[in-house]
TrEMBL record, chains A, B:
Stored SUPFAM superfamilies: Aldolase
Chain ranges of the Pyruvate carboxyltransferase domain: 12-279
GO molecular-function terms, A-Z: hydroxymethylglutaryl-CoA lyase activity; metal ion binding
Protein name: Hydroxymethylglutaryl-CoA lyase
Keyword Metal-binding: yes
NCBIfam families in alphabetical order: PRK05692.1
Gene3D superfamilies documented for this protein: Aldolase class I
EC number in record: 4.1.3.4
Length: 311, 311
């Protein structure tokens, strides 16, 4: 039953991260052809922003070492296909292949900046500045990921003004869009509201903010609902709930796109996504990965042929 | 980080259903002594309303056929210990053992009334009326469960006025509290708000309403958040996410108490529950059941000694 809620957006753009954020956390690399087919199927299911891969050094993310092979195989896909770039070298590789959407990856905390980027927060922002400028000069759209916005495995609670500072720096260097990441999945709706309110006050338009929640503690969809109530219209999600965070014991990671679409459909919010086709795609990918999707909706809607190593 | 939200309740009473709604869905019966120990541990973890068992005919729910043995073993537990009764006979058995809290189980839809109770909705309400009256005369507190409030596997969408009619009938016959059940887990937050608004208009006080969400499509916590925003202060949940719905393919069932407590704690809402002790209890019960808890929070917080048949 569709019951629209006054004050909620009428349309949400889903930023699908399964092919990048999901597959980069797999123990073994998925064949390039399967990745390309996955992206095609996601597009057929109605997704229009599909983060495709990452141009990081293969040493750090061997699962996505085939970015150069993959990208030309999907160049005809009629969708926005952002790619992650960690530095100048990654940007050069991505632009050379014709990427039109770039994403950079910053941290709200010093500990994660050190662990993930081997730099301080300010050093990493300094690295990104020329990257963002060059991407913009090349006509690319730039997304800035901000990880650990709500909690950090080393530092615990993250002071929200610290998050606002990093967001403002990324916006000031030219990012078109920011994605607020709850990398370890600890946030609850009050924190989401509080951060969005602070970002309002700092002059960052809600229309340029996306949210990126992890379901490690089961909070992702409640947090998304709080963000929608604040007016957010870009939500990151991962088909079938692919992916996880190496710092949490649990395998549960990204918000599953199917669970998100179920909620948005019920709220009368347009996404353009065909839930049944998307579920079929996640079941197909689960077959390649050899284990069932952790998405509740995929489990409920999926055929019984879904691989079932799970309970 | 605790960020209270204006307008949300400051305290929520969790109606713990794991020992009844959870264990009644297990394939094999759990030994009576383990059930009693489970209830004691739930109390030690801070839960104060613990639905203990069901006085239904053993033929229908063999998993809880030991109600007569169990109830005296927990009579010293300092908590409210509601028990489910399907009819006069069940009530007599429960009252004879000293039960002070009774729950009856109605359906918002004809199909589920027929499948679950083998009666029409009105016939089942007629059966409950003398049961509720006698329970009240005996000084017992009576909860009325209303199942299939948002969707029904046979009928699909459930017209909300139909739900309001059943709720009003139960209230009029003397129920002290109602529990609004999304038995197949299909609801989204807009439906929750819509039903609660209709119940307001029908004169049913929100203070006498509980919500009972299933996580079949991952919506339970988002729906709970919507209910809290409406002022609901009683939330049903099942320790470790025990239980499921026989009509859904998925094993995912009740909202996990741990996932609920994580959200409430983050919102600064008091529950009296010690999350670590509760997680330990669910891990202990998972050991008895031989499979890991489906609760995201239990998976994230639990020790690595949690049985791990899962991915």
């Amino acid at each position: 039953m569709v019951v629209p809620e006054p004050g909620l957006p009428t349309r949400v753009r889903i930023h699908e991260v399964g092919a990048r954020d999901g597959l980069q956390n797999e123990k073994t690399a998925v064949p390039t052809k399967v990745k390309a087919e996955f992206i095609r199927r996601l597009r057929t299911a109605g997704l229009t922003t599909i983060e495709a891969t990452s141009f990081v050094h293969p040493k750090w993310v061997p699962q996505l070492a085939d970015a150069e092979e993959l990208f030309p195989q999907i160049s005809d896909v009629d969708a926005e296909l952002p790619v992650l770039v960690p530095n100048q070298r990654g940007l050069d590789r991505a632009l050379a292949l014709g990427a039109r959407r770039i994403a950079v990856f910053a941290s709200a905390t010093e500990s994660f900046a050190k662990a993930n980027l081997n730099r301080t927060v300010d050093e990493s922002l300094a690295v990104f500045e020329p990257v963002v400028r060059q991407a913009k000069d090349a006509g690319a759209h730039v997304r800035g990921y901000v990880s650990m916005c709500f909690g950090d495995p080393w530092e615990g609670e993250v002071p929200l003004p610290q998050v606002v500072r990093v967001c403002t720096a990324l916006r000031d260097m030219g990012c078109d869009e920011l994605s607020l990441g709850d990398t370890i999945g600890v946030a609850t709706p009050g924190q989401v509201r509080a951060l969005l309110t602070l970002l309002d006050e700092a002059g960052l338009p809600t229309a340029e903010l996306g949210v990126h929640f992890h379901d490690t503690y089961g909070q992702a969809l409640a947090n998304t609902y709080a963000a929608l109530q604040h007016g957010v219209t870009t939500v990151d999600a991962s088909a079938g709930g692919l992916g996880g965070c190496p710092y949490a014991k649990s395998a549960t990671g990204n918000l599953a796109t199917e669970d998100l679409v179920w909620m948005l459909r019920g709220l009368g919010i347009e996404t353009g996504v065909d839930l049944e086709a998307l579920t079929a795609t996640s079941v197909w990918m689960a077959g390649h990965l050899g284990r069932p999707s952790p998405s509740r909706t995929v489990r409920a809607l999926g055929p019984t042929t879904q691989p079932d190593k799970d309970q």
